[in-house]
Amino acid sequence: QMAPGAGSFARALELDERFHRRLADDFLERSVAACLETARTHVYRYVWMFSPKTGVTTTAFRAEHAPIVSALRHGDAAGVCAALTANWLGFAIRIAPFLEDA
Fold first, then answer.
1. How many CA atoms lie less than 13 Å away from 6 in the CB half-sphere?
2. How far apart are CA 95 and CA 97, in angstroms?
3. Cβ neighbours of 51 (radius 10 Å)
4. Are 22 and 40 contacting, i.e. CB atoms less than 8 angstroms apart?
5. Half-sphere exposure of 69 (CA within 13 A, CB side)
6. How far apart are CA 44 and CA 73, in angstroms?
7. How would you class 46 by CB atoms within 10 Å of its CB: exposed for 0-12, middle for 13-18, buried for 19 or more?
């Protein structure tokens, strides 16, 4: 798999945002969802700017979300939390070197 290009990456980012927004809309209290929305706005700026530079593949992008979906399907709240944490941590680890250089 090649790293996402401009079109495929834009689509992946759109789907990622919709996926995480749906989780927030369905499972979080309104006040917590509002806080997350504020943070998400900033996070997606970093995602858009740095993810293409990390060489992350569409396969890896999908693989980080599969455990979230699996835990949701099994009603495993702790698993959802762990998978979401791993998803965001994976992103943070990928972009950290670019932040140090900035």
1. 0
2. 6
3. 22
4. no
5. 7
6. 26
7. middle
Tell me the C-alpha distance between 13 and 79, whole Å.
23
Structure tokens at 70: 């699996």
Q: Which long-range contacts (CB under 8 A, 24 or more apart) does 41-47 make?
A: 43/88, 43/91, 44/13, 44/17, 46/91, 46/95, 46/99, 47/13, 47/16, 47/91
Q: Looking at residue 74, what DSSP letter applies?
A: T
For the ranges 2-11, 25-34, 66-75, the lowest mean pLDDT is seen at 2-11
Give how far Cα 1 sits from Cα of 12, 30, 44, 49, 61, Å: 14, 38, 23, 20, 11
Mean per-residue pLDDT of the chain:
81
